[in-house]
Design a protein that fits this description.
Blueprint (H helix, E strand, L loop, with lengths): L6 E7 L3 E2 L13 H8 L3 H14 L6 E6 L2 E6 L1 H11 L7 H13 L7 E6 L3 H11 L14 H10 L7 H12 L10 H7 L2 H6 L2 E4 L2 E4 L3 H16 L11 H14 L6 H26 L8 H6 L9 H7 L35 H12 L6 H22 L8 H14 L5 H11 L11 H4 L12 H20 L1
Parallel strand pairs: 2-4, 3-5
Antiparallel strand pairs: 1-5, 3-4, 6-7
Length: about 475
């Protein structure tokens, strides 16, 4: 890298600078509005940054760009440019609460907010990459550049055609995000790398074709597996210790397959398929034999003599005629998703006023149902509970009805967080499961619950329903505490 590889562009209008749709923090933005929404998944950090820029001005670290169609694409500085775009035009904010926050900043610090910046432009990809990778150290609570962990670093390297140590793991995570499964910036890609062997890749439902991952089973099942896996690591239900050895990793993959409604391994799946085919063949042969004319001894005596010999089955005989069942391998302790009742026996109560009879009736009905036997019924009742809870919260806090349940929940959750009623981690999970950020509605979230009754493809298993509730429960309880 050399300084001569970069050219300083003075007073470049913010409006001429585009966010990078493939930036590691954005990953796969569909347009500029989507890029802003994806940057705002870490809203607390960006609010700190916006306030710092409004008060103190932009840092001296130059923003790196590439020239493209008479505009510039940000190669490093997407958070700062996003902050400046919002400060210059609060209407770009995706929710009312954030818009009010930014508007207040703009009015208070109008003299400090700039609409033009100096940028360093280069056409040398290697020079840009080397400069970017050397910059990311020290986040200062969000005001400084936030460190790239191994996941973000790997995405940057792959998106810019550089060798990456955790390539296969990043391919899996990036595939999941393309399907609408949100993967946190802090996802421990090194842990994923521990068990993403070629064998386990197959168990997760993929083949490697032309050095890329390609699903080789039902796409819905592959998505369910991925959603469970990334949720486990996000909620710390699974950790590096969970997959510390090949044996532990194999056991963990087995549990995820089972939770997604598949046999524990591809071998078991193939064995079941073979057994089913053999049984069908035997049944067909027996049916053909029973329909064939009787060509030999037909007397009752001969018929009895050729029937199946009856052997007395005693306990001792049963033990010697069957192989003892192999002891199951130990599995990680991940039992929250495997409960029979949605709310669980130790779950905190939902503080619903007794005057809200319809909601209390819904809760009572959910408590009666075994979610393993009635996942669709529980999911439909749960959607009603969520919608009525959000409506109650918005009424109590005079929030505008946006019209779509997922967006209403996102706005309500942001209001809760701004008023100290939920923490940042709870907000993150609620927004992820609101469905607003999911581009594919085959996954289980608020928006896809409605489709369970209308589409044959939407058949949630009980583990996904339990997992969904665990993430959305803080929202429902907080609705009724207001």
């Amino acid at each position: 890298m050399s300084r001569k590889d970069f050219e300083l562009k003075i007073n470049t209008p913010i409006s001429d600078i585009l966010l990078d749709t493939k930036n590691p923090r954005i990953r796969d933005g569909s347009d500029q509005a989507d890029c802003i929404a994806r940057i705002l998944r870490k809203e607390d950090h960006l609010k700190v940054l916006m306030e710092d820029i409004a008060k103190n001005g932009l840092t001296t670290a130059p923003i790196l760009v590439k020239s493209q169609n008479n505009k510039y694409v940000v190669m490093d500085g997407n958070r700062r440019i996003t902050a400046l775009k919002l400060l210059n035009n609060p209407k770009l904010c995706p929710n009312t609460q954030l818009k009010n926050f930014v508007t207040d900043l703009k009015e208070k610090y109008a003299k400090n907010i700039i609409n033009k910046v100096d940028v360093l432009s280069s056409t040398n990809d290697d020079a840009i990459a080397q400069e970017i990778l050397s910059r990311h150290d020290g986040e200062q609570g969000g005001a400084g550049q936030v460190n790239w962990n191994a996941y973000l670093r790997t995405i940057f390297l792959m998106n810019n055609s550089h060798p990456a140590e955790y390539k296969r793991s990043a391919q899996y995570a990036m595939w999941a995000e393309e399907q609408g499964i949100w993967v946190d910036d802090e996802f421990p890609i090194t842990a994923l790398n521990r068990f993403l062997t070629q064998e386990n890749i197959k168990e997760l439902g993929f083949s490697i074709v032309d050095d890329k991952l390609k699903p080789n089973i039902s796409i819905d099942k592959v998505k369910q597996i991925a959603q469970l896996l990334f949720n486990d690591f996000y909620t710390k239900a699974a950790t590096t210790d969970t997959v510390r050895t090949p044996a532990l990793a194999s056991n963990y993959v087995k549990t995820v397959r089972i939770r997604a409604g598949l046999p524990g391994s591809v071998a078991e799946e193939q064995q079941k398929a073979t057994s089913a085919n053999n049984n069908t063949t035997v049944q067909n042969n027996q049916h053909a034999t029973s329909q064939a004319p009787n060509q030999s001894n037909t007397s009752p005596a001969n018929t009895n003599s050729t029937s199946t010999t009856s052997i007395p089955v005693t306990p001792n005989h049963q033990q010697t005629s069957q192989q003892p069942a192999p002891r199951p391998a130990p599995t990680p302790v991940l039992n929250s998703w495997d409960r029979n009742k949605l709310f669980g026996t130790k779950a905190p109560q939902i503080p619903i006023p007794s005057t809200e009879t319809k909601v209390t009736d819904i809760v009572a009905e959910i408590r009666k149902l075994n979610v393993k036997d009635n996942p669709i019924a529980v999911a439909m009742l749960l959607r009603g509970l969520i919608e009525l809870s959000d409506k109650f919260y918005r009424t109590q806090n005079t929030l505008t009805d946006i019209g779509k349940l997922g967006k209403n929940i996102t706005a309500s959750a942001n209001h809760m967080h701004q008023n100290g009623k939920i923490n940042a981690s709870e907000l993150d999970a609620i927004i992820r499961f609101s469905g607003v950020a999911n581009v594919n509605d085959n996954l289980l979230h608020v928006e896809s619950l409605q489709k369970i009754m209308h589409r044959e493809t939407h058949n949630p298993n009980y583990q996904l329903v339990n997992t969904f509730w665990d993430n959305i429960a803080p929202f429902v309880r907080t609705c009724w505490r207001s």
